[in-house]
Design a protein that fits this description.
Helix content is 46%, strand content 7%. Mean pLDDT is 77; it is low at 105-115. The chain is built from 4 helices and 3 strands. The protein has helices spanning 14-40, 45-70, 76-89, 134-144; strands at 123-126, 131-133, 163-166. A hairpin with a 4-residue loop joins strand 1 and strand 2. By secondary structure, the chain is mainly α. Residues 94-158 form the RING-type domain.
């Protein structure tokens, strides 16, 4: 067997020239198509930066509204009113883990577990008057936003909130 017979046929003669011409034609077609695509885009940099600035201004406005709504600190009187709303709601279990809540000695909570066998878990009251186990809410906050977000949304009503741990 002769090794030179294993080379492609077009390496010898007119077929090599034909193959090379096809490659050059394909490159020219690709270059032309690429040029047409690039020319079809409007690349006005000033307009692009103006649009980015506009979007940033809208985002800043939304964040300012959120901070105005959620950023003020609640007073003790506000927390008493919110706690009364939560007691009126008579939530008996954590909406996250569905186990009984303990609302403290003056709350509507039942003894934890059947016969009081389970240890009491800290309950947290949100400014929207929803109540959760503190550990459940912390886990949900870490899962949904991480620790970087200054505002969190209530898992039930989606309003931003402040929270206060209730004393047992």
């Amino acid at each position: 067997m002769i090794i030179h017979n294993l080379r492609p046929r077009w390496e010898n003669g007119w077929q090599a020239k034909r193959h090379e011409a096809a490659v050059v034609a394909n490159r020219q077609a690709f270059t032309e198509i690429s040029h047409r695509i690039l020319c079809s885009y409007d690349t006005d940099i000033d307009e692009l930066f103006a649009e980015i600035d506009h979007c940033l201004a809208i985002n800043r406005s939304i964040l300012q509204q959120l901070e105005d709504k959620c950023g003020h600190k609640l007073t003790d009187e506000d927390w008493q009113r919110i706690r009364a709303q939560a007691q009126h709601r008579e939530a008996r279990e954590c909406p996250i883990c569905l186990t009984p809540l303990s609302m403290g000695s003056d709350g509507p909570g039942e003894p934890p577990g059947p016969g009081g066998g389970q240890p009491c878990r800290e309950t947290v009251l949100l400014s929207c008057s929803h109540t959760f186990h503190h550990a459940c809410l912390l886990a949900l906050e870490a899962f949904s936003w991480g620790d970087s977000s200054p505002f969190h949304a209530c898992p039930l009503c989606r309003s931003c909130y402040q929270k206060r741990v209730l004393e047992s």
